[in-house]
Design brief:
The chain is an alpha/beta fold and 305 residues long. The chain folds into 2 domains: 44 residues, no CATH class; 245 residues, 3-Layer(aba) Sandwich (Aspartate Aminotransferase, domain 2), CATH 3.40.640. The chain is 36% helix and 16% strand. The protein is built from 11 helices and 12 strands. Helix 3 runs antiparallel to helix 11 and helix 4 packs parallel to helix 11. It is globular, with a radius of gyration of 20 Å. The termini are far apart. The mean pLDDT is 96.
């Protein structure tokens, strides 16, 4: 280790909470698929910021969009109409069958929005006291309390219990187990088409279509977590499109703004009836700066396929 790296490492240990195990690399610059550390060593970046920088570091078009937006408008809160939000919503909704968008700051928040909307839709629109969310073994949906409860992994919840109630987990690829878990209290089934943190596990199309069929049979919601597998990673814009699925809502984040904190939920017009003014909110979600950059990222993804 160089003296420069050792100095950075010492500062990190003194200043930051011990919540990460870091690789022995201190990055100072990136361009395209390359990174450079404090000692000038060059790397090919195969991690991409944990599936985030899909368009490369410091992409020239994205940088230009960021600079232009930075000189126009950063933040006014969701108390005002903003053109940048609307343009991003139009672009995202053009890729899918959904009718409404909600913007937030991360994948965990996007999944929280899906969970909250599912519960509220069932109670306020369907007039059913259905609140349970069923997920699959091997899943990962985030580290906020609701998303952590949905993930259901003891190694991640160690020391944080009790987690919120209202979540069940069944083995993946077992439709009988899923149907047995559905009760009048079930609001939705939440799945990843490709399980990311579980080891990059693509779930079979026949199984996923079976999951959706069970949701339709029992009149519950079908939700897909597209945080890692969405946004052009599987050959279609969304992973669910590989199998002809029609989820009621999807969550996304990661590469949506190529590194700026940005998440979103897309929902059908019907499911979106579960939200009304004041029922869910975020201070920074869909701010002008992040939305302007995300719109450029989606535009590039659509253009370049």
């Amino acid at each position: 280790m160089s003296d420069t790296f050792s100095a950075v490492k010492a500062q990190e240990e003194a200043l930051l909470c011990r919540s990460y195990s870091r690789y022995p690399v201190a990055v100072v610059r990136g361009k395209g698929s390359r990174l450079w550390d404090v000692d000038g060593k060059e790397y090919v970046d195969l991690l991409a910021g944990i599936a985030v920088t899909a368009l490369g570091h410091c992409n020239d078009e994205v940088c230009a969009a960021l600079e232009a937006q930075a000189h126009k408008l950063w933040h006014v809160s969701n108390l005002f109409y903003q053109e940048e939000q609307l343009e991003l919503a139009r672009l995202l909704l053009s890729t899918s069958h959904h009718g409404k968008a909600f913007f937030c700051n991360s994948g965990a928040e996007a999944n929280e929005a899906c969970i909250k909307l599912a519960r509220r839709y069932m109670r306020k629109v369907k007039q059913r006291d259905a609140y349970e969310i069923i997920t699959l073994g091997g899943c990962f949906h985030g580290r906020t309390f609701g998303a952590l409860a949905a993930t259901g992994r003891e190694s991640l919840s160690d020391g944080f219990t009790p987690l919120p109630e209202g979540f069940k987990q069944v083995p993946a690829n077992d439709l009988a187990a899923l149907e047995a878990a559905i009760t009048p209290a079930t609001a939705a089934v939440l799945v990843e088409v490709v399980q990311g943190e579980g080891g990059i596990v693509p779930l079979p199309g026949d199984y996923l279509r079976g999951v959706e069929a069970l949701c339709r049979k029992h009149d519950i919601l079908f939700i897909c977590d597209e945080v890692q597998a969405g946004l052009c990673r599987t050959g279609t814009f969304w992973a669910f499109q590989q199998h002809g699925l029609t989820p009621d809502a999807i969550s996304m984040a990661k590469s949506l703004a190529n590194g700026l904190p940005m998440g979103a939920m897309l929902a059908t017009d019907e499911m979106a009836r579960g939200f009304e003014a004041g029922s869910h909110a975020t201070t920074f979600g869909g701010g002008a700066l992040a939305s302007g950059v995300a719109a450029k990222c989606v535009e590039i993804m659509l253009r370049d396929k």
